[in-house]
Design brief:
single chain, alpha+beta, OB fold (Dihydrolipoamide Acetyltransferase, E2P), MetI-like fold, 3 domains, 3-stranded antiparallel beta sheet, 7 strands, Putative glutamine transport system permease protein GlnP, AA_ABC_transptr_permease_3TM
């Protein structure tokens, strides 16, 4: 009973803290001379508008049931069946380019398109980062001094330099030499950057497995690769899921830096919308919310995978 009462009390305190933070931001916004226009932001996430349908040639309008037919003097016909409203009447004389009808169009706005690019960029980068990380992690613990030193050099070089600088190097130098487009250069920079951190996570996961398991596998006649494939890596990868998830969440947020090489990701799309609307606060709060949706979804997926793996043990 006391435990339930304490939990209820702490939950109330949690809610009060959230209310206090919300009130702080609300009253803070009242202190600045700014007009909030949230109603203007949604159209940049999902755009609904009336698209004009124009006459392809001179002629006469004919309305037959729900069909709008444009008939030219030479007998050519244009049948329009999909529309939301008509701008002409039956037997009206129309000319090429005249608006004869409108159709309601619903399509993703620039922020949602930028979110899709960010998602695509992140997924591809994560895929290659895992491959780079596993290979480099195995090299890092290898007994071959050349492989081990190569792995250490790569890891320290990447972790010791800013991602923004690496993006510039990949785009302006490596991208020029290998003729990479912006998207490919951005993916390569993010994958190589994240791969260095994944390598250390993999190394730590492998070294957390007791050496006795490796010795037992060797005594059963398994070679190094069989031991890693069937015994060590399956266990190590389970232990590395939480830090991997944290790294990939960071990668999603770090992907915003590729906007400096003119990739229209979520951040660049947000900058362009701010330029056209002069509503920076609403736009950047919306951009932050969209990033939060991505990272929260990845976090939830990671927790789901952890539970599934825990049930399979």
């Amino acid at each position: 009973m006391n435990k339930k009462r304490n939990n209820f009390l702490w939950n109330v305190i949690f809610v009060l803290i959230l209310i206090g933070i919300g009130a702080f931001f609300y009253f803070s916004t009242k202190q600045i001379n700014y007009i909030w226009r949230w109603n203007r932001v949604f159209q940049f996430v999902w755009h609904v508008y009336d698209k004009e349908i124009r006459a392809p040639f001179d002629g006469t309008a004919k309305i037959e049931g729900k069909k709008l037919i444009i008939v030219s003097d030479s007998g050519e016909k244009e049948v329009i069946e999909k529309y939301s409203s008509i701008s002409v009447s039956d037997n009206d004389l129309i000319f090429e380019g005249d608006v004869v009808a409108k159709i309601k169009v619903s399509e993703p706005g620039p922020l949602l398109l930028g979110l899709i690019i960010t998602l695509k960029l992140s997924i591809i980068s994560i895929f290659f980062a895992i491959i780079i990380g596993i290979i480099t992690g195995l090299m890092r613990i290898s007994e071959n001094p050349a492989l081990k030193k190569l792995a250490i050099t790569y890891i320290e070089l990447i972790r010791g330099t800013p991602l923004l600088v690496q993006i510039f190097i990949f785009y302006f130098f490596i991208g020029t030499v290998l003729q990479l487009n912006r998207f490919t250069a951005g993916v390569a920079a993010l994958a190589v950057f994240a791969g260095a951190y994944v390598a250390e996570i993999v190394r730590a996961g492998i070294q957390s497995i007791h050496k006795g398991q490796t010795e037992a596998a060797r005594s059963l006649g398994m070679n190094y690769f069989q031991t890693m494939k069937y015994i060590i890596l399956p266990q190590a990868l389970k232990r590395t899921i939480p830090p991997m998830a944290g790294q990939f969440i960071s990668l999603i947020k770090d992907s915003s830096l590729v906007s400096v090489i003119s990739i229209t990701d979520l951040t660049k799309a947000g900058r362009e919308v701010v330029t056209s609307t002069f509503q920076p606060f609403e736009v950047w709060f919306t951009v932050a919310a969209l990033y939060l949706i991505l990272t929260t979804s990845l976090s939830f997926l990671t927790q789901l995978i952890e539970r599934r793996l825990a049930e399979s043990d």
